[in-house]
Amino acid sequence: MIKLLAVCGNGMGTSTMMKMKAKKILDAHNIECQAENCSVGQAKSIVNNYDIVIASTHLIGQLKAKESTTLVALKNIMDVKEMEAQMMAVLKNKMNYKGEDNCETSRLFTGKQFNINSSKCEFLGRSCKNWNRCISAVRSNRK
Questions:
Q1: Where are the alpha helices (DSSP H) in 2-130?
Q2: % helix / strand / coil in the chain, to the nearest 5?
């Protein structure tokens, strides 16, 4: 599951809209997410609790994040295509997500080790059609 934080100046209107759009994008890609929104002031102390943090280009510079958190700067916060392109680039490049058909579940996602006793993919947040193959690969790599 992806933890996403949408950030704006006051943590109300704009960040709520960004959160809803981001959630819709991830849902369309069958990726489970926990999405929240807040002000830039609040985000400074909680930014490292999230996998992806989205904000406008003029606010993103106020946030400092560890390597496990990716900051996404949006030029146009209303542009769903820009948001989708940037978020999917993060998932494809940093987290090795290549879609359900080419899942690399055995990799480390969001700083957590894959749990071989889990009944679902920690990245997708659910079982997928490749679950048995993934869990077998993970178990054989751990021996």
A1: 13-28, 40-46, 57-60, 80-93
A2: 40, 20, 40
Confidence of residue 114 (pLDDT cuts 50, 70, 90): very low
**8 classed as catalytic:** yes
Domains, the chain, with CATH or none? 2-93 (3.40.50.2300), 98-143 (no CATH)
Which token pair is 13? Answer: 């209107």
Q: Note the pLDDT tens digit of each residue in 55-89.
A: 999 999 999 998 889 999 999 999 999 999 999 88
Mean pLDDT of 105-122: 46
CB of 110 closer than 8 Å to CB of 48: no
- pTM for the predicted model, two decimal places: 0.70
Q: Above 50 in pLDDT, residue 20? A: yes
Which residue is catalytic, options 8, 121, 128, 134?
Answer: 8
Burial of 120: CB neighbours in 10 Å, binned 0-12, 13-18, 19+: middle
Interatomic CA distance for residues 107 and 110, integer angstroms: 10
